[in-house]
């Protein structure tokens, strides 16, 4: 007998669960969040089985998120300074499963370290891609660049420049919806998976998008973003802890 879907969990700025014994630790630093509103029907075919687009007021979003991954580490071991530290840019969607767990679905994850990319692709079936990447700051502006090397489409790229504005004292419901995501949905060897994560409440800033030249969204198989972004945010970052996979199980990614 089919099980009726559970109502989605509330949108909360703080995690709903704790991770006393983390599987994985890392920090996400200097993040630029750029989001476009899309029709849920346009992205539903790209989500794993058992999930549907997560929506707010009938709308879902495509996110382009650029940042610095810092010191990835397993369990309680110290994070790795070189192989665990690199720029990353991901294209992501928003999902909710039949258990009501809200999450993200990654369509692509460009990163500048080949070994972590190869391990993630081979062992965990995650859509990591090796790219040439830089992050440069000048005053209150930050520029993130990415040019794909392997496996392709070779040359897929992005160049994002944001000007960091004032801290946001009280984020809106949409700003929490786009950033306070406490898990990831994916498919691992044909099985649905979900992996929870926890971190402190995001310190968010207003941001102006000075430049956005990219084709990563289209390279990820999604429709080209239409019009101006619905939201542009910046965060100096947070330390992150990934918990043990629940049911269905999963493999972690930022």
TrEMBL record:
UniProt-listed InterPro entries: ADC_dom_sf, DUF2071
Question: This protein's superkingdom?
Answer: Bacteria
Which SUPFAM superfamilies does this entry report, sorted A to Z?
Acetoacetate decarboxylase-like
Q: Which Pfam families match?
A: DUF2071
By its UniProt entry, which Gene3D superfamilies does this protein fall under? Answer: Acetoacetate decarboxylase-like
Provide the protein name: DUF2071 domain-containing protein
Task: Write down the species.
Answer: Actinacidiphila oryziradicis
Starting at the broadest rank, the lineage of the source organism is: Bacteria, Bacillati, Actinomycetota, Actinomycetes, Kitasatosporales
